Amino acid sequence: MTRQNPPQSIPRRACVVVANIFSDDRLRLWGLLVVLYLCVSTLTRVVLAGVAIAQGQASLGNVPAMMAVGLLFDIVTALNLFALFALYLVVLPKRIYNSRWHRWLLASLFSLVVFGLIYLGAVEYFFFDEFNSRFNFVAVEYLIYPHEVFVNIWQSYPVARVLLAVLALTALAIWLMRKPLLGEHKGSGSTRARFAVLAILAAGIALSQMTLNVNASRYSENRVVNELALNGIYSFFNAALNSDLDYAAYYLTLPDDEADQRVRKVLTTPHSTFFPGTDHIERHVVADGKPKYLNVVVLLEESLGAEFVGAYGDKRGLTPVLDNLAKESVLFTRAYATGTRTVRGMEAVSASFPPVPAESIVKRPHNEGMFNWSTVMAKNGYVPTFIYGGFGTFDNMNYFFGSNGYRVVDRTDLDAPHFANIWGVSDEDLFRNAVRVFDEQHGRGEKIYSIIMTTSNHKPYTFPAGVEGVPVKGGGRDAGVRYSDYAIGKFFEMAKAKAWFDDTLFVIVADHGARVYGREDIPVRTYEIPLLLYSPKHLKPGRVETLTSQIDVAPTVLGILDFNYDSTFFGIDVFKDSHPGRGIPLNHNRDIALFDGSNLFEIGFRKTSAQNLYDPVTHRQTSVTVDSERTKDTIAIFQKAFELYSGRRYRIAERH
Q1: In this structure, which of 61, 171, 274, 376 has its CB flanked by the most CB atoms within 10 Å?
Q2: How many C-beta atoms surround the C-beta of residue 464 within 10 A?
């Protein structure tokens, strides 16, 4: 009677497969690469977790689950990343594979890959330090502008030392693997076993594609823990593949009629009337008085979070100029950015448009001829300008503003600067040129409306010599804030001597905060920004405690000017139309929300929703039962914004 062996358990079969891989001359190289990648990824996660724990963003109790989930993502990433290498090793003819030149070629390419994997671990550390996140949409965007980004990285980080360290580790790894790489091949392993491994690999990849997505890493209420559990390469490709996503496929939506009704209800104000016979948000805004044709100059300040400004409670004395201006200005004490990127601030301030994922309208295709702040100003006789200290091709700025009513003035149009770095001329040089542009406009009898975008408060944090308290380099964010404040002071010194100063309304607002940090999906505190309206001859100083967004800047200023106009703005005139419970839009990576000052109504990627109660004192968020009606309002706002943009309907119909 034939004796049958008992069936093997799954773990035992897995051990047999692994043993076959490392006993096979060819597949051993693939196995070593996978193991090396898993080691680098695990070590990176351990280091990042240690930093997060030291900063109070995670705890030791988070580590076991984080490492387990992380290992799953690492394995799936490794299988996908090196699948073609395994196929190559299996199908390559024996004659070529065993040749001397091929062994050296394989060793060289293998060394480059090992170097890249180790270097990527170092890059992830610095990226996480800056953005409190794995590679995301920011990393994808950076690759579009390699010159600016790579020069910035070279000037901001110890790249040379990192490269030397990575080279040393690569040399050590290759030396330890020299025998399988360059040693004599004994021909161990069978073709049948190799193809069996390929079949298992293909099945594993197929299974992961069907069952695993980025939401599997979101098992914790702590955003930082979820980011740590992710794999950087997996996260990068997920961001890249979803950078031009179909909104309705990934976010909660409502029937069109319901969404239209809800948005119109949210945007209804005593001073506006919707046009009849349309599902659009087009409405006519009526002013209280006669028009005031003041010049309007917006200083859109790079990365100037409220946390650095003395007028908002900071005690370090970094912003003496802004603090003094605040005493003579209308100061908005509860102002928030819509997002974490400059282009988000631009779309919000210039077009009063919510931060719809995945990409800002500044960088999206078909963004020409949109309704925006310049539309109203031009109809009232102004000549709009956008003035930027860098090259405006970056982030598509020149095209967006140039295609939406602005005359663009960027680095190519500026006088020779006294100082510049990779991002642009110094803020002093920028403001000096802006004043020249305004002088020319005033001389021609033009009414001035301008948005000035600064660049100095940004890595690598290099500045002109001779500014007290601001080292030429190495001063970091504090030096960036000090210099920004100093340059603002120089701007107003120049402006006050000009004939156009008295009849100008100045808006000082940040494009976004310094950086996003915190365990929440949307860390509200990091969205707090300064917002000041300064016009000594026309505005009485005061403090506005009303919840305010960047999308409210344009309609609020237009209200001060008392202009009647047709509008598709999502923002409101804060002085006239604010009401309790009104929500302002926020965005972080894939997550979007409305925030009413207490509650955060979140809409997540892959059709999820949540509600958190925000404590403005401790800045902690507590999960609470979802208010379905307020959540539907949130869904409606972002859904309608996406539909208006994608349908090229964010404009005023000619019939009005």
Answers
A1: 376
A2: 19
Average pLDDT for 39-50: 92
DSSP structure string for 349-388: HHH-----SSS-TTTSSS-TT---HHHHHHHTTEEEEEEE
The 10s digit of each residue's pLDDT in 65-100 is 999 999 999 999 998 888 888 888 888 888 888 788
**Over the stretch 432-479, which tens digit does the pLDDT of each residue have?**
999 999 999 999 999 999 999 999 988 888 999 999 999 999 898 999
Q: Which of 336, 328, 277 is nearest to 306 (CA)?
A: 336
Domains and CATH numbers, the chain: 10-241 (no CATH), 256-646 (3.40.720.10)
Q: Is the peptide bond before 203 cis (omega within 30 degrees of 0)?
A: no
The C-alpha atoms of residue 268 and residue 341 are separated, in whole angstroms, by 29
How crowded is residue 562: how many other Cβ atoms within 10 Å of its Cβ?
14
Task: Convert the pLDDT of each residue in 575-624 to its tens digit.
Answer: 998 888 899 999 988 889 999 999 999 998 778 899 999 999 999 999 99
Of 532, 535, 488, 527, the residue nearest 511 (C-alpha):
527
Structure tokens at 243: 């950078």
What's the chain's average pLDDT? 88
CA atoms within 13 A on the CB side of 33: 28
Question: Residue 273 above 80 pLDDT?
Answer: yes
Distances, alpha carbon 8 to alpha carbons 4, 23, 24, 201, 265, in Å? 12, 20, 22, 19, 64
Task: Calculate the alpha carbon distances from 525 to 25, 590, 615 in Å.
Answer: 56, 18, 10
pTM for the whole thing? Answer: 0.80
* Chain-centre distance for alpha carbon 206: 31
DSSP 417: P
Strand 542-544 to strand 531-534: parallel, antiparallel, or no bridges (unpaired)?
Answer: unpaired
| Distance, CA of 110 to chain centre | 34
Residue 214 has pLDDT above 50, yes or no: yes
Q: Are strands 330-332 and 420-421 parallel, antiparallel or unpaired?
A: unpaired
Task: Report the C-alpha gap between 193 and 200 in whole angstroms.
Answer: 11
| Cβ pair 541, 330 in contact under 8 A | yes
Nearest to 282 by CA among 262, 295, 267: 267
Phi then psi for residue 484, to 5 deg, are -55, -45
Report the b/e string of 390-402 with b at 16+ CB within 10 A.
Answer: bbbebbbbbbbbe
Beta bridge partners of 622: 613
The one-letter code for the residue type at 346 is: M
284: tokens are 């006519």
Whole-angstrom CA distances from 42 to 38, 39, 70, 134 are: 6, 5, 8, 14
Beta strands 447-453; 283-285: pairing state = unpaired
pLDDT at 548: 97
Minimum mean pLDDT range among 14-18, 102-106, 604-608, 630-634:
14-18
Say which residues have a Cβ less than 8 Å from residue 223's Cβ, sequence separation at least 6: 518, 519, 520, 521, 523
Beta-carbon neighbour count of residue 594 at 10 Å? Answer: 25
